[in-house]
């Protein structure tokens, strides 16, 4: 499960570290306690939109840039989770009809690609005439 507060915290921490700034420096500029900012960065607390805006201002970065990064990260995690589910389906070797239904359910609504399955291998039984001839 994706925890948005952790991804937001990681994005804020990465930006702060890239600027080589301390928690104390950013917390003072954002007018938030050092401990609370640390908990936000570690994903233990959820920041309000006002607090996120203040932290972004202190980091001299746009809130939309941080949220865009968070959005891309969440999309990547969701895609990885979707692929894991598809692999489980393939490993379970479900019937083509059932696995197609699961693949369709897991596919994003705007995906234009179609997942194809290899043909099922069927055992052929020899006809009675072939058995007699053998």
From TrEMBL:
Domain of life: Bacteria
InterPro entries associated with the record: Cro/C1-type_HTH, Lambda_DNA-bd_dom_sf
UniProt-annotated stretches for the region Disordered: 105-134
Region forming the signal peptide: none
Species this chain originates from: Actinorhabdospora filicis
Residue intervals of the HTH cro/C1-type domain: 12-66
Gene3D superfamilies assigned to the protein according to its UniProt record, in alphabetical order: lambda repressor-like DNA-binding domains
Species classification: Bacteria, Bacillati, Actinomycetota, Actinomycetes, Micromonosporales
Protein name: Transcriptional regulator
Sample GO molecular function, one term: DNA binding
């Amino acid at each position: 499960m994706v925890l948005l507060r952790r991804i937001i915290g990681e994005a804020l921490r990465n930006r702060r570290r890239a600027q080589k700034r301390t928690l104390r420096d950013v917390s003072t500029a954002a007018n938030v306690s050092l401990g609370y900012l640390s908990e936000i960065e570690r994903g233990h607390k959820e920041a309000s939109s006002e607090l996120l805006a203040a932290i972004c201002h202190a980091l001299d970065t746009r809130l939309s840039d941080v949220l865009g990064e968070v959005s891309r990260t969440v999309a990547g995690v969701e895609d990885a989770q979707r692929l894991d589910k598809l692999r489980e389906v393939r490993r379970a070797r479900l019937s083509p009809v059932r696995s197609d239904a699961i693949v369709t359910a897991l596919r994003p609504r705007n995906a234009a690609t179609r997942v194809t399955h290899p043909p099922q291998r069927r055992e052929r039984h020899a006809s009675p005439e072939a058995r007699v001839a053998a």
